[in-house]
Amino acid sequence: MTETPQPEPTQHLPAQYEPPATPTYEAAPVPQPGPYVPPPGYAAPGQYAPPPGPYQPPVGGPAHQPQSLPMQALPTGPVLVTVGDISVEQHRIVTPAGVLPTHGTNWSAMDMSRTEEKIPGWAIVLAIIFALACLLGLLFLLCKERKTTGFVQITVQNGNRTHNTHVGVSSPRDVADTLARVNFARTLCV
Q: Looking at residue 28, what is its pLDDT?
């Protein structure tokens, strides 16, 4: 067997190849020392500055913010009740969204669970087997199985701050326990 010679691959480059020129950058201007001038619309904490542009603030100044105690002023204490991810103490409510004072806090609870009742599979099988032997097998069809699924939605609100949580339930007893915890927390917030 004879091999035919293969030509070597050649690169096709332009006759005069020049690499791209590296860009040159100018240095950023060095800030000059002097008094600091804040940008338009900026105000120090606790002060009001009108926003830039044609907007005019309402007569009487900025919108009134509700007064609340600083969070450092709320004393800590033992946890009296826990509802889902919400812990309630004597003077404050601790949520993942932050700390709320107990005074003036509104609680709401909504039961979003449902209970289904059905005949279990084993009762149907036994009813068929014993129905052939005697009619007493039909009594197995009176067996019922209850299953609760869903959650209770809890909402805590104080001023403009709100936190929602869902507490999963698996029985009517769990629903009653969660609602009782919310009612106890309401009594602490009066």
A: 63
